[in-house]
Amino acid sequence: MIRPDAAQLADAAGAERAAYVHVPFCRRVCPYCDFAVVAGVDHLTERYVDAVVAEIEREPTWGPLHAVAFGGGTPSRLSPSQLERIVSVLRDRFGLVDGAEVSLEANPEDWHEGLGDRLAAAGFTRASLGVQSFDEDVLAALGRLHGSGEAIAAFGDAKAAGLSTNLDLIFGTPGETLERWLATVEVAVALNPDHLSVYALTVERGTELSRAVASGAPAPDPDLQAAMYEAVLDRVGLVRYEVSNFARPGHACRYNLITWAQGEYVAFGAAAHRHRDRVRRRNVRRIDRYLERVEAGASPVQGEERLDAWGREVERVFLGLRRAAGVTAGCAGTALLESPAGRRLLDAGVIGRRSGRLVVTNPLLTDEASRAVLALEEVDC
Amino acid sequence: MIRNFSIIAHIDHGKSTLADRLLERTGAISERDMRAQVLDTMDLERERGITIKAQAVRLDYEASDGRRYVLNLIDTPGHVDFSYEVSRSLAACEGAVLLVDAAQGVQAQTLANAYLAIDAGLEIIPVINKIDLPAAEPERVADEVSSMLGVEPGDVLRVSAKTGEGIDELLERIVAEVPPPGGDPDAPLRGLVFDSYYDSYRGVVCYVRIVDGAMGTGEPVVFKATGERHSAAEVGVVTPAAVPVAELGAGEVGYLITGVKDIARIHVGDTVTSARTPDVEPLPGYAEPKPMVFSGLFPSDGDDFERLREALDKLRLNDAALVYEPETSRALGFGFRCGFLGLLHMEIIRQRLEREYDLDLVATAPSVAYRVILTDGSQVEIRSPADMPDPSKIERTEEPIIKALIISPSEFIGTVMELAQSRRGVMEHMQYLTPERVELTYLLPLAEVVFDFFDALKSRTKGYASLDYEPAGYRPADLVRVDILLNGQPVDAFSTIIHRDEAYAYGKRMVSRLRELIPRQLFDVPIQAAVGSRIIARETVRAKRKDVLAKCYGGDVSRKRKLLERQKEGKRRMKMVGSVEVPPEAFIQALQVDEER
Ligand SMILES: Nc1nc2c(ncn2[C@@H]2O[C@H](COP(=O)(O)OP(=O)(O)O)[C@@H](O)[C@H]2O)c(=O)[nH]1
Ligand code: SF4
Q1: Start-end of H helices in chain A
Q2: pTM higher than 0.80 for the full model?
Q3: For the segment B117-156, what is each residue's pLDDT rounded down to a tens digit?
Q4: Which amino acids bring their CB within 6 angstroms of ligand 1?
């Protein structure tokens, strides 16, 4: 089976089509989270699903989808029948290719026995569990509502249902030592998931965490996070195919591969971003505005971004560099390799050139390379 | 019937207010008001030079003895760096009104100016101002003045420049006590240039006190020190409107316009004489303007170099003491090495460049003019660390010394002495003005004072101490140049010449400060301080290990790209020192005055 980090897999995704559904509901807003989320308004879910369905039905038809992703927020706040309804509307509207990926994010505290089977029956092929840690202290520091026991149970149920299963982990929470992180990694590895996402805890602007740090609470230590990341690399038996993502063959997340390959996707729901016909458009972020607009028959789109040819070329390289497979060097990649900044990155072992491709050889310094690409003077392509 | 006098005072003791009051009392002010009105409507007239900077105003005064007197009020520059120019203004007078704030009492500039006036042989009229203030303590201040000048406390006049109280009495005392000018009206012309400024229409306007002889309009004149020959195109008096006259006679004060455009060609303190008598003995006390403090000024934005040059050219039109020459720094690009009379002068110029000319500047650590005696016996002046000769060629180094006069409340005397000693100061003299206030004189290396001595003094004495200083020659000193190296490359902007005993502390301080200021790079960056080839301090900025966004998914693409673009802009501003990226503010912050000292 093809490796998750294969160039062929990475590049092919650019021609595929995906759909994204944003589910903004959360039980409680985590202190570090800067996604478009709302807590305490679960009574709106039915209206919301109606609006999403309406939005899907107004979207111009397209070819069949290769991937469908439910993200959030917490899609598992919706009932299986609500989720099923959206999946079937998507299928009716666009069609799904054979073996299409249909994936959702779920939180352990929402999981219950049998949910895996129920989701599989609804058409889901993949579940991504917001486990974050198997360390109770870290979970508490992250303001999470579940314990590691619930996470393990949810995982087992999803796995038993035949879903391709991902665990989301966060490292570098202040107070978490390297040893404790390794213990979390060990539990994760023992569960033998198909896919693993490991994220360095990041202080995002406007979050409770950033306010706490501003008033003196400890911030994540980037050097420790680097060590934690490196420790993961040679401990999990999975293949790293993007900065933060690892998978066994056949289990790379197809929806995300499409994104990094600058592929196109439609998107529905509050704050959803789509990329279709070379234009990126985003919906209103606030759920009340989203509902009002859709219910009034209006478009929920609030902004768009159109890049010129050079902008798209730069974007292609910037996105592709996050993948282990890198990108075909092309116009911007070649310009980078020939620029003084590029040569410095080469010398420092941050980037490399591999059979016509530009690759990041030290994923911990990916943004150095990304900024250098964004800083390039425009060249004729 | 001429009386030539100055008002001398510590800053804010009310000199300008008193001058206004005197103008008003003698009727000059009505003319001045009129001019103010004219100004609004007829800017052009003013531009043509109808008005003239009132550095010396002629007041007509009818005294109680019924006679009319001409009082020439001569202004003195307001701050310590210009003590030479103050002394030239005083040389144009026979008397001085020594003004002391009734609440603040005698301050360092009061004393420094009083000494200058005494040295110039002036008749001093001690006056306490602001007696209307609730906090006024005229009795205590009169005691201070009396012990300073050796006069009876009762002879100290009490006035309020604000309410006008005591002003008439002051005018009477000026007439009675300031001696009429001496000088020989029949001798060859000798005039003292005691001030000058640049007027965009008239060129350089000199203020002149005629000592001997007379200066007539149209006469050819010679400036003794510079040898410049010109015609006295216009001579006149300031009332405060400029009034041309046919001739200025012995003892009189007025202005002279020659058509010279470059202020550097006319030196304050020079003697002007008739071209027919070029060999007269010059008036005593002339000194070349000599910069004491040097600093490199660089535009933060390299594109502003020409604007900086133009701004300096403009400032110099009116400031002959400002000198500058282009300088290139590997780290800071193109700029100017500037010389100033002193710290305040430097501060004023820097502020004017930033405020009036809207320039964003990086200033290198101020340094002083060191003297190096080479092994071949020759002597060189070192104005920039870059000019320091190789140690093997140096026989001996010398540094400029100043004589600092400090007045402080006596409760702070310990901390003031401690400060002066920590800056290698040697006490010369100490005297209690009153039991509460002490006068201290120190010989201090100028280099120790240029950074922050004044601020340190103020903060240690809750703002109560005052400082004045004057140059006091050179003294041998064991000086070395400390270089700061980034990744093995010396950063010229951080090099400094310093006393050997302090080299280590300086080096340590700079490298640890830079360690905080230099962002982590792709590789380890050693920061070293070195004297010659010897490393005296070292720190390392460790290579950056992590610089990556944890997530970038479908909903993030535009936002994350913009975030990275913003960061990229920050990177673009970086200055490259070899292969090390240094944020421009790091230069400013590293060079900022040390609070820790
Ligand atoms: N109450 C009071 N204030 C005064 C008097 N003379 C001057 N001032 C104030 O003291 C401050 C400094 O005066 P100024 O003439 O500018 O001082 P200079 O720096 O010596 O020229 C100003 O705010 C004046 O209004 C006075 O006799 N009484
Ligand atoms: S559950 Fe996930 S989406 Fe919801 S607030 Fe927490 S981190 Fe954010």
Answers
A1: 7-12, 45-58, 80-94, 115-121, 136-141, 148-160, 178-191, 208-214, 222-233, 254-260, 287-295, 309-320, 330-338, 340-347, 366-374
A2: no
A3: 998 899 999 999 999 999 999 999 999 999 888 899 999 9
A4: B 9, 11-17, 129-130, 132-133, 160-162
